[in-house]
Amino acid sequence: MTREEIRNHYRALRKEFTPEQCIYYSQQVTNNFLRNWMFNHKLIHCFLPIHRLREVDTIPLVKRLRQNNRVCIPVSNFDKNNMTHKILDEHTQFQDNAYGIPEPMTGEDVNVKDIQVVIVPLLAVDQHGNRLGYGKGFYDRFLAECSPETLFIGVTMFDIHDDLTEIDEFDIPLHYVVTPKGVLQTTAEQPAPLR
Ligand SMILES: Nc1nc2c(c(=O)[nH]1)N(C=O)[C@@H](CNc1ccc(C(=O)N[C@@H](CCC(=O)O)C(=O)O)cc1)CN2
Ligand SMILES: Nc1ncnc2c1ncn2[C@@H]1O[C@H](COP(=O)(O)OP(=O)(O)OP(=O)(O)O)[C@@H](O)[C@H]1O
C-alpha cells in the first residue's frame, strides 16, 4: 500500500467507530500510558483531539499528567504547517480552530527545546516508530526542532501497522507507541533517560 492508501485505510476504520468505542479505546490508551509513566516535574507536550475524526481523547490524560507536571498544548498555523505551544493552567480557555482542533487562547509560550516528552497523534505507526499523520508534516517539523533528549510517545486506537515502507526523508521515529493493548518500545534509538 502507498502512504496515501494506508492513510485512507485508517481514516475509514476510524469513521466506523461509534463515540462509545472511541471513549472505550481512549480510556484503555490512557490507562496503559499512566501504568507505564506518570512523570514528575516534567514539561510534557500533548495534542488535544479532533473529536470529529475520532482521535484518541487525550483530555483525561492531560488532566492527570498536569497534577505532577507542566503540560503544553500546540496551536497550529495552517499557512506554514507549523505549531507554537502554550502552557496549560487553570485559567486556560480553548477555542476550536477551523479544523476542529481545540487550542489554548492564552498562556505562556514554550521554548521547544525545553519540552521533555511529546505525546504524538498519528494515523499509522510501525514497530520502528515510523509514523504517518495527515500528511502536512506538522509533527515532522516539530519533532525535528526538539532536543535530542526528548521522548516521543505515539498514541493510537489501532494496532501497530506492519512495516511502513516509503519512509519520508523527514520522518522522525517515535520511541514508544501506546495502543489499547499496551505499550510498545520501538526499535528507534532511545534518548537518554529523563532527568
Ligand atoms: N489533534 C491533532 N492536532 C494536530 C494534528 C493531529 O493529527 N491531531 N496534526 C498532525 O499533524 C496537525 C494538524 N493536522 C491536520 C491536517 C489535516 C487536517 C485535515 O485536512 N482534515 C480534513 C480531512 C481529514 C480526514 O478526513 O482525515 C478535514 O478536517 O476535513 C486536519 C488536521 C497539528 N495538530
Ligand atoms: N522538516 C521539514 N522541513 C520541510 N518540509 C518538511 C519537513 N518535514 C516534512 N516536510 C514535508 O511535509 C510534507 C508532509 O510530510 P509527511 O507525509 O511525512 O506528513 P505526516 O507525518 O503524515 O503529517 P503530520 O506530521 O502533519 O501528521 C512532505 O511533503 C514533507 O516533504
Automatic annotation (TrEMBL):
GO terms for molecular function: 5-formyltetrahydrofolate cyclo-ligase activity; ATP binding; metal ion binding. This is 5-formyltetrahydrofolate cyclo-ligase. It is an enzyme of class 6 (ligase). The keyword Nucleotide-binding applies. Keywords: ATP-binding, Ligase, Magnesium, Metal-binding, Nucleotide-binding. The keyword Nucleotide-binding applies. Substrate binds at L48, E55. Its EC number is 6.3.3.2. Its cofactor is Mg(2+). ATP binds at R3, E4, E5, I6, R7, R131, L132, G133, Y134, G135, K136, G137, F138, Y139. PANTHER family: 5-FORMYLTETRAHYDROFOLATE CYCLO-LIGASE (PTHR23407:SF1), ATPASE INHIBITOR/5-FORMYLTETRAHYDROFOLATE CYCLO-LIGASE (PTHR23407). It holds the Pfam family 5-FTHF_cyc-lig. It catalyses: (6S)-5-formyl-5,6,7,8-tetrahydrofolate + ATP = (6R)-5,10-methenyltetrahydrofolate + ADP + phosphate. GO terms for biological process: folic acid-containing compound biosynthetic process; tetrahydrofolate interconversion. Belongs to the 5-formyltetrahydrofolate cyclo-ligase family.
